[in-house]
Amino acid sequence: MNAAEWKEKLSRVGESFSSAISGAAAGNIAEVELQFLGRKGELALLLRDLGSFTIEEKKELGRLGNELKARLVAALEARKAELGGGKSKAAAGLDLTLSGLPFPKGSLHPITQTIVRLSEAYLKLGFAMADGCHIEDDRHNFEALNFPPDHPARDMQDTFYVGVKDSSGKDMLLRTHTSPVQIRSMMAAPPPLRVFHPGRVFRSEAVDASHSFVFHQVEGLYVDRNVSMADLKWTVDAFIKDLFGSSAKVRFAPSYFPFVEPGAQVEISCVFCGGKADKCPVCKSTGWLEMLGAGMVHPNVLKACGHDPEKWSGFAFGAGVERFAMLLFGIKDMRMFYENDLRVWKQL
Amino acid sequence: MKILYSWLCDFIENPPPAEELPARFARLGLGVESSGRSGAAFTGVVVGRIDKIDKHPNADKLSLVDVNDGSAMMRVVCGARNIAVGQLIPFAKVGAQLAEGELKKAKIRGVESEGMICSAGELGLEGYDNSGILVLDPSAPLGADARTLFAPPDWVFELEITPNLAYCLSHYALARELCVFYGLKFKEPALPELPKAVGTVAPVSVADPSLCPRYTAVVMRGLKGARTPDWMAARLRAMGSNPKGNLLIDVSNYVMYELGQPTHCFDLANLAGPAINVRPAADGENMKALDGSELKLSAGTLVIADRGKPVALAGVMGGFYSSVADATDSILIESASFSQSAVRASSRKSGIKSESSYRFERGTDIELTMKAARRIAGLLLEAVPSAKIEQVSDNFPEPPRLPVVTADPARINAILGTAMTDEKIFACLKAIQPGLSPEKPWKFTPPSYRRDIATVQDLAEEAARYNGYDLIPSASSMPVMPASSTPMAEAEAELRGRLASLGFSEVYNYDLVPLKDLRNCLLDETQAVELLNPLSSDYQYLRVSMLPGLLKTLRYNLNRGRTSVAVFETGTVYRRTKDGKKEERVCAGLMYGPFPEEQHWRGGSEMSDFYHLKGVMQAVFGGRRGFRFEKPKTRPAFLQEGAALVMKLGAGEAGVLGLADPMAVINSDLKDTQVYYFELSLAALAESWKGSFRDRVPQVKAVSPFPAAWRDLSVLVDEKREWAEMEKDLGSLPDLSRLDLIDVYKGKGVPEGQRSLTLRFTFSSMERTLTDADVNSRMEKALKKLEASFGARLRG
C-alpha cells in the first residue's frame, strides 16, 4: 500500500462514518463508535498500517489520521447530544422564546404597496409612467375627454372647484379622475404611446365605509395603429393575474364612460369565494367583482389631442386603487386608509 | 330607475322569466342594483280579527289569541307585542304559503296553534313596518283573502342607467331593448286614433325650434272628477311615486314611466288665451312652480307661457297656477321635445331636478311625443268615455337629420379584435335598424331613439353587446416598448423604502384641511387655495404643508394609548401664486416619544430628540453624492430657531429638519412639544436623480490592506466651539482613515462653559503597517491642532 492508497482508504473511512452516524439511532450509537473509533475500529487499524511507511510519510499521514479522528469524535459527541444520549452541549440559561431586540420597523401604506405592485406590472408590460397634476382645468378633466359642457355625464362625477382661474377665465377644479393624464400625454407626444399614471383624485362625496372624497386611481393608455379591444383584454388580464394570481379570471361587460367607445366594465372572479358565489358577502354571491372601467379611446378624444382617429386607435383603462387595496389587504372600511391608526399600520 | 316586471311584460310577447332578467340586463350594460319580489305572493291568508288575548300558560313572552277568521274561531300562539283586541290582522291558516314556505300545524310550548298572525316580513311584503304583526286597516272586510289588500305579486328591478342608455329610461323602451337584443317579439301599446282636424282651441307657437323641435298638444274637455284606477295607482306606488288619485295628475307620471316621454297637463281654464308660447323668459319674469318654489326667471331660460306669463319651466316643472286640480274639466296635454342643454340650464338655474328634467337632459325620442299624447288620451277616455278631444296639434317643423354610418364589418372586427362573420354583424345591425339593406357598403341609419349612435365605434359596441363581450378574445398584438418610471417616482420609492426600514410608518392624510389647521400651524392662509364648494368647513382649503396632517396623526395615535410615533407622508402641497397655482410633491415626517418604540425586556429606549432625527436623515441619504447638512440662513417655517438644519444635495436644498415650532404643536392640542419634524422636496430629490444610474451611485474608495491602529483622546473645549469645525480641521492629519466622536460630556469634573470630548482616531496607511512611533507622532499633531485652533486642553 502506498501513501496515496492509504489516503484514499482514510477518506473512505470518513465517508462511511458520516453516513453511519447520520442514520444512527440512540440505541446503536455505541456500535458506530466501536466500529470506527474502538481499539480495533477501522481508524485504529488503518493507523496501525502506518508502520510500513517512511518517516516523512508517517508524519504527514499521521497528522491526517489524527485530524480525522478528532473530527469523528466531535461529530459523535454532537450526535449523542442531539439524540439526548450524551452530555448536552446546549448553552445554559438561554430562554429562546424571549423576543428579539426591537429593531425599528416601519411600514408602507397599503395604497402605496398596491400602487407599487400595479406600477411594476405596467412597467413590465411596457407602460411608461406619466405625470399629472391635481388642480386641473375643465379642458383636460372634461372637455377633451368628450364631456361636452352641459352633458349629463358630468353628473357622474361630483366636482370640487377651487378659487383659481384657468387661462380662459374658468374656475379650475380638483381632478375627478386620472384620465386628464391621457390628454396631457397625448398632447405632449405623438403616438405610439403607452403610459400609465397612478394618483389622487377628488370627488365631492360624503365619506362612508365605501366612499371618500379623496381617493386614488391608476390610469393606463395605449395609442398606436390597429389597437384592438383584444389587446385591452390581454393587458387587463395580465395585470390582474399579476396581483391576484394566475387563477384569477377576467370578464368584460358593456359600460359607459364618455371618453371610450366601446366601453367596458371589467369584472374579476371573486378573490374570496373563488367564483363559487355561495353566500359570499364580498361578491354578494355573484362570483364576480367590478374592478375597473375600460374601453377604446373615443375618436373625439383622439381628435381633441390632434390625432386622426382614422389612423390611430387606442385603449384606456382606469381603476380605483382603494378597491384593489381593500381586496388585497382585507380592509373593509375606506375610512381606515386616512385614519392612520398605527395599531393597524404596524401590522403591515 | 325602478322597473316592474309585470309592466315590462305588457310590451313583450312570451317574456323571459323574471329570474333571468338581471343577467340579461347586465349583459347589455344595464347595471342591476337590486332585484326582488314585490307585492302579495302568499296564499291562504285571510283578514282576521283578534277577539281575545290570554297569557300563554308556559311562556311569559307568548300570548294565546282567539282569532275570528269570519267563519270560525281559532286559537293561535303569538309572540308579538303589538297585538290588541279588536285589531284586524292577516291570519294565515295551516297550509298557507308564506315567504318562508308552507305553514304547518305546530305545538308551541305545549299549546297547539291553529294558524299564525303574520308580520309584513312573513308575508314577503316590502315597505311596511316589520317590528311586529301587520295591523290591517279597520275597513278591511273580515274573512276576505288578504291578497286583495296589497299589490299583486311582481318583481322589481332597480337599474342604474348610464347616460348613453338614456333611451332605456322607461318600461316600453327597456322592453324594446330586450326584444332587439334577444330576438323577442315586441308588443306596441294600444293607442286610440285621435280625430284629425278638430280645430284649434289653444294655438301653439315656438319661438326657437332649435330649443323645442317638437311640441304636440291635445286639448280634452269633460274630464272633471276623473279618478286614477286602482291598477294604475298600484303601479305608481310600486315605482315609489305617490299617486294623488286625480287621474289628470297621475296619468302624466304613469305615461312617463311607461314610455319615457315626460308630459304635462295644463288646466285650460287657467291658460290665458288660451295659448301656448314656447319662448325664452324675459329678465324679471317670475313664476311659482308646482312644488311651491317662487322662481325668478332670467333671459335665456326656456319657458312655456300662455298669452301673458310663464306657466311652466320647459321640461323641468309646471307652474302652480296652471296646474290641474280636482275642479279641472278641460286640459291641454303637452308632449314635447326640448333641447337637452336648455333643460339642463333651466334645471341648474332653478335648482329644480325632476324626473322630467332628468329625461330631457339625457335626450328623449322625438318620435315619441305623439305616441305619448295618444296614450294619455286613451287612458283618459278609458276612465271617462264621454270626454271630448277638441285639439290635436303637432308643431314639428323640421324632422331631425339622422346620421348615416358606414358599417364596415372589417373595421368593426379590427376595433374589437374579433373575427365575427359578416352575417353575425349584420344580424345585430338589422335588429337595431330593421330596414337595413344587406347590400354593401352597409349604410346604417340609427332609429330616432338611438341618438347615441354616430360612429363606427358605436356600432362596434352594439355588435359586442349583441354577441356578448365574452366574444372579445384576450390576445395581444402589441409590440414591445421600452418603459420607465419617472425620476420623481423613483426618488420617492427609494425614500419611502428607507424611511420604512428605519422605523417610520407611512400615513395618508387628506389634501383638504380646515382654516383652523392652517392657523394653528402658523401657516399663511392667503397662500392657500380655497375650495369654492367644500363639503364642509373641515375640508375647505388645500394643504400648504404636511405639518397639520402629521400633527393630527400624532394626536390621533397618542389619544389611543400610543407613547411613541414615527410617521411620514409623501404628498402634494398647494400654493396660490401670482399667475395661478403651484403644486409641489413633498415627503414629510415626524418622530416623537421613546425610540425604538417597543418596550423590551432589555430596556434601552430613549426619548427621541434632534439627533435621532438627524441620524435618520443621515441613514436615508448615506452615500448620496453631494449630501450635507447646513445651518439655515433664515429660520425655516414651522421649525424652532436654533434647532433646525437644512439638508443640501449638491447646490440645491433638499429639505429641512428640526424641532417643530412649539407654538404649532401646542395649538394642535398636544401637550409635549418634543416633536421632531422633517420635510423634503421631492422635486429636489428627483433633480438629483436625473441622469443615469451610474451618475448617482457612490464611487467606492479602496481601503488599506495593512492593519489599522487607533487611539482615543479626551480634551476639554469651550462648549461654543462646534464639532464640525474640529472634524474638518483634523481631517488633514496624515493617514487618518476614521475620526469618531465617541463621547461628549458636561458636568462634574468639567469646568463651567466647557465640554469634554473624546475622539477616536483610526490610522491606516496604504503603503505599510504603521509603527507605534508613527501613530504617536500623528496623535501629537492632532493634540497640537486642537490646542492651537480650538484652545483645547488634554483632559487629565
Describe the structure.
The complex is a heterodimer of chains A (348) and B (796). Chain A is α+β, with helices and mostly antiparallel strands and 348 residues long. Chain A has two domains: 3-82; 110-345, 2-Layer Sandwich (BirA Bifunctional Protein, domain 2), CATH 3.30.930. Chain A has twelve helices and ten strands. Chain A has helices spanning 3-23, 29-37, 42-48, 55-82, 110-124, 138-141, 180-188, 229-244, 299-304, 321-329, 336-339, 342-345, and strands spanning 128-129, 135-136, 161-165, 171-174, 193-202, 214-224, 250-254, 260-269, 288-297, 313-320. In chain A, the strands form two sheets. A seven-stranded mixed β-sheet of chain A has the order 1-5-6-10-9-8-7, with helices on both faces. In chain A, strands 2-4-3 form a three-stranded antiparallel β-sheet. In chain A, helix 2 packs antiparallel against helix 4. Chain A is elongated, with a radius of gyration of 35 Å. Chain B has 796 residues and is an alpha+beta fold. Chain B folds into six domains: 2-39 and 155-186, Phenylalanyl-tRNA Synthetase, Chain B, domain 1, CATH 3.30.56.10; 43-150, Nucleic acid-binding proteins (OB fold (Dihydrolipoamide Acetyltransferase, E2P)), CATH 2.40.50.140; 204-395, Phenylalanyl-tRNA Synthetase, Chain B, domain 3 (3-Layer(bba) Sandwich), CATH 3.50.40; 405-471, 2-Layer Sandwich (Phenylalanyl-tRNA Synthetase, Chain B, domain 1), CATH 3.30.56.10; 487-695, 2-Layer Sandwich (BirA Bifunctional Protein, domain 2), CATH 3.30.930; 709-794, Alpha-Beta Plaits. Chain B is built from 21 helices and 41 strands. In chain B, strands 27-30-31-37-36-35-34 form a seven-stranded mixed β-sheet, sandwiched between helices. In chain B, strands 4, 5, 6, 7, 8 and 11 form a six-stranded antiparallel β-sheet that branches. Chain B has a five-stranded mixed β-sheet with strand order 14-17-20-21-22. In chain B, helix 6 packs across helix 9, helix 10 (409-416) packs across helix 12 and helix 11 (422-432) crosses helix 12 (456-467). Chain B starts with a strand and ends with a strand. Chains A and B meet through helix 5, strand 1, strand 3, strand 4 and strand 5 of A and helix 7, helix 10, helix 12, helix 13 and strand 27 of B.
